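Re-running the complex after MR caught last week's input typo. The corrected sequence lines follow. Everything else is unchanged.
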Amino acid sequence: MSKHSFKKPTDDPIWLKALLGAVALGFIGILLLAPLVLVFQEAFAQGLGGFWRAIADDDTLDSVWLSLTAAAIAVPLNTLFGIAAAWCVAKFDFPGKAFLVTLIDLPFSVSPVVSGLVYVLVFGMQGWFGKSLADHNIHILFALPGIVLATIFVTFPFVARELIPLMQDQGRDEEEAAATLGASGLGTFLRVTLPNIKWALLYSVLLCNARALGEFGAVAVVSGHIRGVTNTMPLHVELLYNNYDYVGAFAVSALLAMLAVLTLALKSLLEWRYADELAAVHRRH
Amino acid sequence: MSAIGLKIPLRSRHVLPGFSLSLGFTLFYLTGIVLIPLLALVIRPFELGWGGFWAAISTPRVLASLRLSFGMALFAAVIDGVFGFVIAWVLVRYRFPGRGVLDAIIDLPFALPTAVAGIALSTLYAPNGWLGSLLVPYGIRIAYTPWGVLVAMVFIGLPFIVRTMEPVLSEIGQEVEEAAATLGATRVQTIFRVVLPMLTPTLLTGAAMAFARGVGEYGSIIFIAGNIPGVSEIAPLLIVTKLEQFDYAGAAAIGVVMLGASFIMLLALNGLQGWAAERR
Amino acid sequence: MLNVDSVSKKFGRFAALNGASFVAPQGGFISLLGPSGSGKTTLLRILGGLEFADSGSVRFADLNWLDMPARTRNAGFVFQQYALFRHMTVTENIAFGLKVRPRRTRPSVGDIQKRVKDLLELVQLSGLEKRYPSQLSGGQRQRVALARALAIEPRMLLLDEPFGALDAKVRKELRADLRRIHDHAGVTTVFVTHDQEEAFDVADLVAVMKEGRIEQYGAPADVRRNPKTEFVSEFLSV
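Corrected-run output:
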C-alpha cells in the first residue's frame, strides 16, 4: 500500500502543517506567553523577599482592599441586574425587547475611558450634579462610590449576556408548570430556574469578577489616583511603574496575573464540563 | 383560575410572576447607570454649539490622536486577521498534545488586566527588553513609538479573531473540501478557492470586533506608546488629559466621536453577522 | 472493468467493511443497497478516495485504484447534502473541476463555458447559470452537483444516497434523469441507497450489503427471485 492511501484528501500536507503550526505557536509564544512570563520573572527579580516586601507595603494592601471592596459591591449588583434582565427578557414578551438587549451590550463596545468620562460629566465639579454634591459634602468622584459606579458600568453586561440567551433557550415551560402548581415568583425562581442556570451564573460571575478587579481605564478616570486611598490594584500598578518601582509594579501585577490564570483555568473547566449549560459555549458552537 | 388558588390577578397579561419587578429594576438600573450618563456625554460638547464642537475636535492634536487610534486599530485588525486565522486553523484542525492549554491561553488578553498587559508589553519591547533588544540592531524601535501602539492593539485584538473563527471552521464540514478534492483540486487550491471565501464574512466580523476594541483601548497602550502629542498619543489618552485640564467639553467632544464610531461599528457588525449567517 | 477484491476497513474497533468484493463491467450501473451500518457508504468513499482501505485491492480500467490519491482518480462524487460551493454561482460550481486543472490540461475559457452550457442542458437547468445554491430548490441543487461531477468527464461516477434529502416525486424524476445521463455518457456508476425500490429501479447490478460484506450480488430480477440468504429475503420483503 503506497503512502497515498494513508492520507485523506482533507488532511493538509505535512509541509503546510509544519508551516502553519510553527507560525501559530510562534505568534502565540511571542505575543501572549512572553508578557505573562515576564510579569512573574520581574516580580521575583529580587527573590521571594522582594516580592513579599512589595505586596506587604501599606499602600499596596490598601489598593488590594479597595479593589476587593469595589468588586464586592459591583459584582453582586450586576448579578442581580443580570438575573432580573434575563428573567424579563426570557420569560416575557414586550415591545422594545431587542433594543433593551442591544443597550445591555453597549459597554462592551465603548472605550473604558469613555465609560469613566460619562460619570465625570455627571458627578464632576463641572458636571451636572458636581456642585450640589460638593455642597452637601458628598463625594462620588475621587472616592469609592465613583469607582464602584465605573466598575459597574463596564462589567454589568457579563451576567446578563450569559443568562439571557441561555434562559431564552430554556424557555418558559418549567416555570409555567410551577406557576400552575401554585408557586410564588420567588419560589419558582429559586427552585426551578436557578438550578438550570447555576453553572452559567457561576461562569459569568467569574468573568464579571475578573474584569471588575482588573478594570483600569474607566476607574483611572474617576478615581483621582490618590495614593493609598483611591487607587485600585491596577491603578497602583501604574503608580509604581511610573515611579520606577518595577519590582513593586510587577509584584502587584503578578497577583493580578495569577488571578487571570486562575480565572482562565476555571473558565476552561466550566466550559469543558458544563458546555451544555453555558450560553457562551452555544454561541461559539 | 381562582379555583386553583393562583396568586395572579385576573387582569394580568402574564402567566409568570415578576414581570413588572424585573423589568422595572432592569430599566431603573439601565437608566441610572447607562442612559443618563450617556446623555450627559452627548449633550456636553454642544454647550458650545456645533461650531464649538467642530473646533474642539478639529485641532491638529485631536485629529492626530484620532488618526493614530483608528489607523493603528485597522492595521492591528488586519494583522490579527491573518495570524488569528492561522491560529484558529491550527487549533481546530490539527491534533497535538497541549492543544487545550494553548486554546485557553488565547483568552489571556481578555482575562489579564489591561494595566498589567501594558507594563509587561512596555518592558518587553523597550530597547533593553527581551524582544526590544533583539530588534535594536536592526534599527527597529517599538516601545515609545507608534509601533508600540500597534503591538498592544495586536495583543488585545487577537482573541476576537480566533474565537469567532473557531466555531465556523469546525462547522464547515468535510464534504465541501472532499468534493473539491474529487474534482481534482490540490489541498492548497481547496483552501484558497473553497474554504477561505466561505469564511470571509466571519473573518471580517472578528476583525471588526478587534478593530472596535483597539480604538477604545487605554491601559494596554499608554505604557508602551510614548504618548507624544501629535505622534504617539491615542485618543482615549487625550480624553484623560483634557479631563485633567478641566476641559470637560473638549474631552466630551472626543468621547462623542468615539461613541459615534462605536455605534457605527455595532451596526456594521450586525450587518456582517447577517451576511455570515447567509453563507452558512 | 471494475474489480473490487476483499476490501476491509475498521474505524477503531468497528469493522465497517469486512472483505467486500464484486466485479462489474465497464460502463455498468451498480447499486450498493443495505441498511445503515452495512458499509455501503464506506465502500463508496473508498472508491472515491475519501477513505483509505485497511486491506484489499481495487482494479479499474487497468489501474491500481487504491494507490491513487482522490485528486487523480477522476471519480466524480455526488454527496447526499450536495456539498455545493455556496459562495459560487451554478456556473462556477460546475466549472470548478476544469478550472483547477494544471495549465497543461486546462481547457480554454471558451471551452469551459461551452461545457458548462452543455451540462446545464443535460441536467435541465439551462437559464440558472448565475444563481447561487441558496436560491435553488433541493432537486435543483442535486442536479448542479451531478453536473459538477460530470464536468470533469469522470471515469467513475459515485453517488452517496444522492436523493435521500428530497421528496418522493423529485426522487423519481432525478432517478430517471440519472439513468438517462448514465446511458448517454457510458460512465461506470456506483450508487449507494437504503431504498430498495430505488436500487432495483435504476441499477443493472445490485449488491445487497450487511455488516461490511456483500450478501448477494446480481441483476435486480435475479436477486429478487432467488434471495440467497435469510437477510436478503427479509430485507427485500419489507
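None of the earlier attempt is carried over here. The beta strands of chain C are 2-11, 14-24, 29-33, 55-60, 63-64, 75-78, 156-160, 188-193, 205-210, 213-218. The longest helix of chain C spans residues 168-185.
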